[in-house]
Amino acid sequence: MASMANSPVSRSPFAAGVELFEDVPIRSTEPEELAQLLAAHELYVRSDRRSGKRANLEATDLSGRNFSGMKLRRIRMTRA
């Protein structure tokens, strides 16, 4: 019986639904762009998804950024 630790593919029944982003480069974002994205996302959350736009920060370098006090519910942040 092969060990799962030596297996290159996950054996979880849920693994098929997970996208791996190994080949997606991490992008940077300017402070102004990030502020606009977060403002639109806040409107999106406050309006119950009727206005604004859901922020997508997947594969984004957010090091050094402070998100304390912000409403980040429903934000996309995979590999951020």
Give an overview in words.
- The protein is an all-alpha fold and 80 residues long.
- The chain has a domain at 26-80.
- 20% of the residues lie in helices and 0% in strands.
- The chain is built from 1 helix and no strands.
- The termini are far apart.
Brief synopsis:
The chain is mostly helical and 80 residues long. Helices cover 20% and strands 0% of the residues. It has a domain at 26-80.
Describe how the helices and strands are arranged.
Blueprint: H1 31-46
Shape: globular
Whole-number mean pLDDT:
80
List the uncertain runs: none
**% residues in beta strands:** under 5%
Radius of gyration: 17 Å
Please report the number of helical segments: 1
The SS-based structural class is mainly alpha
Q: What portion of residues is helical?
A: 10-25%
CA distance, first residue to last residue: 37 Å
Order of helices and strands: H
Give the total of beta strands: 0
What does the largest sheet look like?
none
Can you give keywords for this protein?
globular; mainly alpha; 20% helix; 80 residues
